Amino acid sequence: MRSILLKKEDKDEPYHGLRSPIGLTFLNGFAVSLACTPLDVIKNYWIYKDSNEVFNRGFYANKGLSLHKVPKNTNTLKIIQELYRYGGLRTFWTGLLPTMMFNIPSNIIFFNTYYYFLNAMGFSPGIAGIQARTITTLFVSPMEFIRTRVQAQIGDELFLNINRVGAKVNKHRSFLFDSKRYLNIYQLWSGLWITILRDVPFTAVYWTLTEKLRSRIALQGETNSGPKKTLKLFSIAAFSGTVATLVSHPLDIVKTNIQTHSFNHSLLGKGQISPGRIVSSLFRRRGFQNFYTGVFPRILKIVPSCAISLSLFELCRK
Known about the structure:
With 318 residues, the chain is mainly alpha-helical.
């Protein structure tokens, strides 16, 4: 059985000069937030809208109301059109501030701890990534919780208005009001363990594939820079990110439902919703395919995010 530690002869040469400038990781977090927030909004709204059909069908039937169902042929384009009609282009950057407050410290913590476990501790890329991601998630989970709720809140407003429940929804209802009404401080870490369970396989798959492909493809016969190498790195990040997303997306569905559940207390009743209830309800409705709702916009988000991160990662190598 292969040790989780890298043998000295197995180490890739560029690791010896690896460093992590704070400025580059800050820039990484800023660029990823700006480029990928629209795709996060699409994904979170899609999941929220879909989950409302799953859990609230009985409520609307009992009230004699018409449920606004998510059509079976709902796709990314239709979700984009619905969001655009709701609030124009600015809707797609909903939650940009909490996204930056999540991504920037997340990148700084992750890359510095990843470098430490990779170099100082001698762990393999997969193990170093898992350890770094777990530590990062513990620190930034509250900001991811806020980001997810702020973006899904669009769905809360749209869903109630479309179905004419009779509830007046304030467009500018603050997240803090919801927190005081439904949450306590500990619930800022709501969905923490399912987030870690989502991120562990993603990180292990992504960094293992990335480092192996990088050493076998990107470094062979190439100089330290150049458009050809950049294209190879982008392709590696895109492939590794796509595979890792497909592996971890079902857990992202569960996480998003847990973190947005308190919007629906009036519909679902009080009390915490369990991961088991979410999984069983989703599976009963459309089977396993329900766990890949919104996977396409998440892949579209992950690809540029990973490409930007890997490019800046290369700048940290000598």
